[in-house]
Amino acid sequence: MIDEILSRLPTKSLLRFRSVSKSLCDGIGSPDFIRLHTLRSPNKLLIIIHKVRYEYGEDTKTMYTIHSQDQLSSSYTGITPAEYPFGCIRTISGSCNGILCVYDQLRSAIHLWNPSIRRKATVYEHPSWDPCLAHGFGFDPVTGDYKILRASEAGTFVYTMKTHTWREIASPAYPVSYVNGSPCLFKITIIKGCLAVECFKDEGDDHRWIWVRNTAASWSVFELNKGERATYGGLLVNHYAKGIRVFNPETGVRSRLGHLIRSSFIIGFATCIKSLELLDIYEKHNRQI
């Protein structure tokens, strides 16, 4: 009964409750409870990364802000920015169960980062000097383990978090010189649990539509503005000079994401859910930030 109640509470409350007693701390940090809480988490987050220029000769800083998807607006009132833990923008290779996979090419490292609890684990690349063509990240429900895929000209490798090891797997029979890091179905996405398809008349055409198949087995269609694309969590985005425009096809509402402060600009964003993931994965490899 206690687990049933706790699994429906927000992550911020659960982190505080860990200090109540040792038994409560162990229970909240157990892998089984974390999986249960993740499955029941309804809270989707939008992570916006900002480059901030400071006056008087100070160095620039990279900050991030966390928004719920119903908070999309040009105002940052009440939202406290935090310093981006990787110094500057790095490639976000994927998102799974509240964890973002961030590729740091400069340090030949891959960071698994949970922004909702500010935890990260760092994985160093397979000792191959060949440039990486693409990374993939996901959760294997059969083994209950997170895995990272690395594709390069030297071969294809998989890293498993439980064993902290890389292993080589079979590569395509023909030499690989290019790998598209996007999902295989490039024009298909999921919006609020519904299948959605992006369509256009001709390749490169700016006139596009999103078709969403709802629960009544019928299709709804939304016309997109120039530059909008189906991406992160069913939101469509369009970068422009003063920030980012976001369109939610489910509600038909467009929002403008402005700058954090006058001297900042948006350099990236990602979506994830609130979860406790990484709280239990090899504490010695995690660092609170």
TrEMBL record:
This is Uncharacterized protein.
